[in-house]
Amino acid sequence: MRGEAPGHLAIERVVKRFGSFTALDGVTLSAARGEVLTLLGPSGCGKTTLLRVIAGFLQPDAGAVAVGGRSLNGVPPNARNLGMVFQNYAVFPHLSVAENVAYGLRARRLPAGEIARRVEHALRRVRLSGLADRYPDALSGGQKQRVGLARAMVIEPELLLMDEPLSNLDAKLRVEMRQEIRLMQRELGITTIYVTHDQEEALAISDRIAVMEKGRILQVGSPREIYEQPAHAFVADFIGGCTWFDGVLGGGVLSLAAGPRIPCPGPAQPARLALRWEDLRLATDADPPEHCLPARVAMASYLGHRTRLRLVLEPSGAELHADLPSHDPLPPEGSVARFAFDPARARVFGADGTRLA
Amino acid sequence: MSGTLALPRPGLLARLDPWPWLGTLAFALMLVFVAWPLGELALTSFIGQESGRFGFDNYAEFFASSYFRRALVNSLTVGALGTLIALVIGVPLALAYARYDFPGRGAIEVAILLSMLSPPFVGAYAWILMFGRSGWVTEFARGLGLELPPIYGTLGISLASAFGLYPLVFLVVRGGLARVERSLEEAAASLGRGRIGVTLTVTLPLVLPSLLTAALLVFLGVVSDFGTPAILGEGERFPVLATLAFSLYLSEIGAEPGMAATTCMILLAIALVLVLGVRFLSGRRSVASDAGGGGGLKRLGGAKGSAMTAAVAALVLVANMPTIVVVVSSFLEVRGVVFQPAFTLANYHNALAAMGNALWNSLVLAGVALVLITVLGAGVGYYISRRSGLLAKALDLLIMVPFVVPGTVLGIGYATVFNEPPLLLTGTFTIIAAVYVVRRLPYMTRSCAAVVYQIDRGLEDASLSLGRPPLSGFQRIVLPLMQPGIVAGAAIAWVEVFSELSASIVLYTGPTRTLPIAAYQQAATGDIGMAAAYSTMLVGIAAVGLFVFLLAARGRGERSVGWL
Ligand SMILES: Nc1ncnc2c1ncn2[C@@H]1O[C@H](COP(=O)(O)OP(=O)(O)OP(=O)(O)O)[C@@H](O)[C@H]1O
Ligand SMILES: [Mg+2]
Q1: ipTM of the complex
Q2: Does residue A266 sit in the same domain as residue A228?
Q3: Whose CA is closest to atom 7 on ligand 1?
Q4: B111-to-A236, B174, B211, B241 alpha-carbon distances in Å
Q5: Residues of the domain holding A137
Q6: Which of A137, B301, B475, B498 is 20 to 30 Å apart from A172, CA to CA?
Q7: pTM of the prediction?
Q8: A45, A166, A201: which to mutate for ligand 1, most atoms within 8 A of CB?
C-alpha cells in the first residue's frame, strides 16, 4: 500500500465536537506526496468538517494535523499555504477572472510581471485564456469551477483541498471536469484531498479512498481494494450494489436462512453475507446446490450491456437483484430459475460489521 | 375515477382582477399628491421672484447671494460629515453583528434599534442640554478649566444627525454582510490573506452597494432634516437649505415663495444626483450572491467576548445618550434655562396644561395615516412586484419619490397647490394625513415588495389552477406570507409618522398642531423642561407602538426590516 510511510499530510486522532455532537471521532489519516486521497461517505459523516479542520477554518478539539512534517496547530488558514476549491465555486464576484486567479499571488507580493505570467499560464491550463477579463456573472458553472481550480493551483499550494467541487455541475460536465482535474493534478503533482459522496466519482478520480461514517474512518485503500475487499459491512453496502443475506456462523460454516452454506472461519455468532449484484449468475448443473438460490424473476430492466433482474427468493419472498450480461439467454419475467454465486466472491461480516471472510 | 368535482360558476367577483384598478387608483393619488406639488414648485422656481419673468432669475439670485450659497455649502458639509460619522459608528457595529456572537448581543441590538425611536430634533435638543452654552457637560468641563468647542453649527448638526441615523447604516450594512457568502472570505483566507486583508479585499468590496446605499440614506436624512439644523443652527445664524426654504416660505416679513421654491429645487437636485450616482456606482456589476450566503456566527467567549460586548455596548450607550438625557431631564426641576438636580413632575404638569389637542391630533393623524399606508402600501407593494407593465413601473418610481424628497420641500409644495380650489386643503387634518401617508408609503411598499419577490409565483398559480379566484387566492395564500413584510413596514412607518416634523411644520395651523410640533417649538424657543417632557412623551408613545408591532411579529420568526 502507498502512503504508509510518514505521509505528506498526517492527521492524528483528530476530534471535533459541535456542542455535544461529535462530528469527528478520532480521525487518523495520512496522504502520500502527490496522491489524490478521497474522503467518501454519506451526507453528514464529517467530510466537510475534516476538510475544514485541515484548512484551518475549524480548530480541532483534540489531535493534530501536519503537512510536510510541519504541525499546523495554531497556524491560521492564511498561513497554511493550502489551496481550496469550493463546492459553490466561491469565485469573487467583484473581480475579473484574471484578478481572481491573481488574488493569492498578490497576497504573496509577487512582482506584477511574474503574476501576469503565472496567471496567463494557469488560465491556459484550465482553458480559460480567452476569458481573462470576464466577470464571474458572465461565466457558466463549469467555467467558474475552473476559475476556482486555477486560483487554487496557481499558488502552488502544499495541498489541494476540494469539497465536492463538481456537485453543482451537470452530469456531462461533471465527467469532463473530473478527468481534467485528474490530469492537472497529475501534471503538477499536488497532494490532493478530495471530498465527495458520489462513489463513482470517488472510484474514478482517486489513488486512494477513505470511507467515512459517523465521524470515523472505516477503511482506507485503493478504489479496487475498497470495492473488492470491503473491510466493513458499511463499506460494502455504501460502494456498489449489494444484496444481504442473514445467517448464522458456527463450526466453520455459515448457514444462510435462504439455504446456501459456505465454509467460513470465525467464532459462533449471527453473521451476514454480502453479494454484489453482478456476482450472481444463472446456475448450471455443475453448481453445487449449497451455492445456489432458487428465485422467481419479478422484473427485468434492460440497462444496455447488462440487464438487472429483480428476484424474489423462493420460498421466503425476500428480494434481491442480479445484474446479468444482456447477451446471455435470460429467464422470462415470472419464471423461476436457479441462481448461483462463487463463494470466493461472497463477503461475510460479523454482527459488529467487521469482515470475517 | 368517477367524474370531476364541478367548480361553482364563476361570478363577477371570481373573475375580477382587482390589481390594475388598485394600481390606477394609487397612480392617480400619486399624481395629485406627489407629481402636482413638486411640479408646481418646479414651475414656481422658474418664475422670477422680483421680475416675474420665466427663466433662471431665481437661480441666478440664489447663487449671487453669499447667504444662500452658505446655506448650500452648509448643507453639503453637514451631510458629508454626518454621513462619515454615521458610517464610522455603524459599519464596525454591522461587522460585529454579522460575524460574531458575543454576550449581550440581543439586548444591545434592541438598544440600537431604540436609538432610532427619537426623532432627530429631539437628539439635537439633547445635544444642547449636554454640550450647549449652559449644558451640563459644558459646565462640568468649565469647572475643570476646559472650554469645549461650540456645539452650534457644523460639528453639532453633523454629530447629532449621525447619532440619530447610524442605525440605518447598521441595518443596511449588516443586511449586506449577511448576503456575502462566507466561502468567499474563506477562499481569500486560504489564498493567504489575513483577517484585515480579507475584509479590505473581499468583504468591503462586496458590501459596497450596501455601504453606498447606507451612506445615501444617511446623507439624504441629514440634508433633508429640518428640526436638527433649526435647533442647533440657531435660526438664521447657520442656515442650511431645509431651514432656508422654510424661512423663505413662511417668513413674517416678506415671504419669498419663488426663492423658497428655488431652494427646494436645489435640495431636490442634490438628492436626485446622489440617488442616481449611487445607482450607477452600485449597479455596474451585480455582486449579490445567488446562494444567499450566510454561515454561522463565530462565538466569542471569555476575555474576547467581554471586550467585544464592552466595546459595542459603549458605542451604543453613547449613541443612546441623547434619548437618555432627554428622558431624565424631563423629570428634573428647571430654574431659568438650567436643569437642577432635583426630581419633579412639574414639566409634565406644564406640558399637559399647554398641550391643547397636540397629543390627540398626533394619535389620530398617525393612526389614520398608518391604516392608509398599510392597506395601500401592501396592495401596491404586491402589485409592483408582481406586474411588469408600464403602470407598475411608473407607480413604483413615483411612490419612491417622496422617499428622497425632503419633508420641508413636500410641505411647501402642498402649501402651494392645496391652498386654493379645486383642492382646498390648507389648515385641514387631511393635508397633514396626506403628507404623512405620501412620505412613509415607500417604507410599506418596499417592505412588502421585498417579501413578495421571495414568494414563489407557483403558489398563486397553484391556487388559481385549483379553482380559486385571484382575490381569494391572494387573501388565502399571499397575504399570510406577506405578513412579516407588512408588520416590518408598519413598524417603521408608525415611528416615522408619529414623529414627523419636517413637512407638518409647514402645514400645521393652530387646531392641527401635533406633538412633534409642540416639542419642537418648546425646544427651539420655549421652556426646556416642557420640551423634554414633550420629547419624552413622543419617544415613549412611539416605543409603545413599536413594541406592539414587535409583539405582533413575534413567533413569525421574522425580525428583520424587510425593505432594507
Ligand atoms: N457548525 C456546526 N455546528 C453544529 N453541527 C455541525 C456544524 N457543522 C457541521 N455540523 C454537523 O456535523 C456533521 C458533519 O457535517 P459535515 O458538514 O462535515 O458533513 P459532510 O460529510 O460534509 O456532509 P455532506 O455530504 O452533506 O456535505 C453533520 O451532522 C452536521 O450537522
Ligand atoms: Mg460537506
Answers
A1: 0.73
A2: no
A3: A18
A4: 58, 16, 22, 32
A5: 9-235
A6: A137
A7: 0.76
A8: A45
